[in-house]
Write a structure and sequence with these properties.
Belongs to the metallo-beta-lactamase superfamily. Glyoxalase II family. Keywords: Hydrolase, Metal-binding, Zinc. Pathway: Secondary metabolite metabolism; methylglyoxal degradation; (R)-lactate from methylglyoxal: step 2/2. Pfam families: HAGH_C, Lactamase_B. With 253 residues, this protein is of the alpha/beta class. The chain has 2 domains: 106 residues, Metallo-beta-lactamase, Chain A, CATH 3.60.15.10; 145 residues, Ribonuclease Z/Hydroxyacylglutathione hydrolase-like (Metallo-beta-lactamase, Chain A). It contains 9 helices and 14 strands. A 6-stranded mixed sheet has the order 1-2-3-4-5-6. The protein has a 6-stranded mixed sheet with strand order 7-8-9-10-13-14. Strands 11-12 form a two-stranded antiparallel ribbon. Helix 5 packs antiparallel against helix 6 and helix 8 crosses helix 9. The protein is globular and about 55 Å long.
Length: 253
């Protein structure tokens, strides 16, 4: 299975998976980008996967679904008109062409009904988990997002994290403020700057790398707690409150 990042808008990635001549797309906000890639590679679209309802993730779905007559999988808990295969936490998306079996993970927080799609070694997580960051609260709560991120963090360390935005360098700048004594952040920043300098995506990220550099997965670490305490002017009562204060800090960063 080959997985290709299709840049869209200012900083989105649409993920195209293909094996042989059969393809699946994840969060196609722009139909034109997808159609161009399908034509260039001689691929037939077989399914569309959606993680949440925001326009930059679903804007291209009606045109693609109408032209290719393919099933559209998306969160049952969100109102997305094009979805004809609503999915919930614990469901399985099984396709024959390309051969693909994905577990649906309910990961609310960025939005109330957000889902992710997981297979061993692969995670398509939309705007829940970013490289060195996480999504803003646009319909869900900090408590929900905290639980969702803990769930994703428990996946195997070699899981490739395919999120939907090229936010990595900006997120690493914040991570350096949130945990200034973590040398892994600077190492990751240099690596990602080199990738961007060559015009390459910083994604996918590895989950074990994220556990080392992403402050939103490190809210039990003393350095993060101390930085949050200094910024908020009070010590968080527990890890959940530390996460909520950290997310609020990032909103204004």
């Amino acid at each position: 299975m080959d997985i290709i990042a299709l840049p869209a808008f200012r900083d989105n990635y649409i993920w195209l998976l293909h094996a042989g001549r059969h393809a699946v797309v994840v969060d196609p906000g722009d139909a034109g980008v997808v159609e161009a890639e399908l034509a260039a590679r001689g691929l037939a679209l077989r399914a569309i996967l959606i993680t949440h309802h925001h326009a930059d993730h679903v804007g291209g779905v009606p045109a693609l679904a109408a032209r290719h007559r393919v099933p559209v999988f998306g969160p049952a808990g969100e109102a997305i008109p094009s979805v004809d295969r609503p999915v919930n936490d614990g469901d399985t998306v099984a396709l024959d062409e390309p051969a693909l079996r994905l577990e649906v993970l309910g990961v609310p927080g960025h939005t109330a009904g957000h889902v992710a799609y997981y297979a061993p070694g692969l995670l398509f997580c939309g705007d829940t988990l970013f490289a060195a960051g996480c999504g803003r609260l646009l319909g869900g709560s900090a408590a929900q997002l905290y639980v969702s991120l803990r769930r994703l963090a428990a996946l195997p360390g070699d899981t490739a994290v395919y999120c939907s935005h090229e936010y990595t360098l900006a997120n690493l700048r914040f991570a350096a403020e949130a945990e200034p004594d973590n040398p892994a952040i600077e190492t990751c920043r240099r690596h990602c700057e080199a990738l961007r300098g060559r015009g390459l995506p910083t994604l996918p990220a590895r989950m074990d790398e994220q556990l080392a550099v992403n402050p939103f997965l490190r809210t039990a670490q003393p350095g993060v707690v101390e930085a949050v305490t200094r910024h908020a002017g009070r010590r968080p009562a527990d890890e959940r409150e530390c996460f909520a204060l950290l997310r609020a800090w990032k909103d204004e960063f």
